[in-house]
Each structure stands twice: as C-alpha cells, then as structure tokens.
Amino acid sequence: MVVKINGSTLRETRWYEYALRFLLGGLITAAAGIIAERFGPVVGGLFLAFPAIFPASATLVQSHEREKKARKGFSGEQRGRDAAALEATGSALGSIGLLLFAALVWTLLPSHRPIIVLAAGTCVWMLASAGLWKLRRLR
Questions:
Q1: Which of 81, 124, 75 is nearest to 102 (CA)?
Q2: Buried b (16+ CB within 10 A) or exposed e, 43-79
C-alpha cells in the first residue's frame, strides 16, 4: 500500500464521526492530565504519546472500508480489518517517533535554545516515523 493524501475521505466523514474523534481525544488527553497530576508530568507525558484519536480512527476506518465494499456488493469485513490493522501499524510507528522526539527534547532542552531543540525533535520524529514505515514495507 502506498501512503498518500486523499481529500475525498473528508467528504465521506460524517459530523458525528468528527465529534467522536474529538470526544475520545479529549478524554484520553484529560486522563493523561489526571495521571500527570497524580504521578507527575513524566508519567503523564508518556500517556500523551498515545495517539489520542487512534481508538476512534481505527473503528471509523474499518466501518468506512466495509461500507465501500458493501456499495459494490461485496463483504468488506476482511478489508475493514486490514485497514484498521494498517492504521494501528502507522500509529505504533508514529508513537515510536514521538518517543524519540520526547527523549531528544528532554535531554537537550535544559541546555539548548527551545526553538532549535523543538525543530530538531520534529525532524527526528518525522525521519524516524517515515524510516520505520519504509523498513516495514521493505520487510
């Protein structure tokens, strides 16, 4: 599968699906804040590395793929599961990139200019995530 941007999916998404993503993302972020309040910002920050909208997006991707196949007269169960699994893989690889971002920022921020550290962290996150995706494809 080739990663690409597809703007047509924005038209297919219903308003309540956006609301569900927003709600779940907010709940996960609030839970991370509560954890940070109880156990400290280091532990709470680890929970923010979890992609906040992943639970909603995985289920929405699955249902959209099933609907697409159903419109063509096919069962889309397997296609939906495969799409959700691919979404989970991308989220996991992106999370590894976020962990590398966090480690770099944590290490360098006290002794370097914040703008430089954040820019470097962003580059590390993007390169690591894209590199891991490429390695996964080659494997």
A1: 124
A2: ebeebbbebbbbbbbbbbbbebbbeeeeeeeeebeee
- pTM for the structure as a whole: 0.61
Mean per-residue pLDDT pooled into runs of 10, the chain (139 residues) = 64 77 83 91 75 69 76 76 81 86 92 96 94 88
**How many residues would you count in the chain?**
139
Name the 3-class secondary structure at 113: coil
Number of neighbours of residue 83 by Cβ within 10 angstroms: 21
- The confidence score (pLDDT) of residue 91 equals 81
Give the residue carrying structure tokens 């007269």: 73
Hey, what amino acid is at 11? R
- Supply the pLDDT for residue 50: 62
Cα–Cα distance, 107 to 89 (Å, whole number): 27
Nearest to 19 by CA among 80, 60, 61: 60
CA distances (Å), 46 to each of 6, 12, 75, 102, in order?
31, 33, 39, 9
Beta strands in the chain (DSSP E): none
Tokens of 121: 């962290």
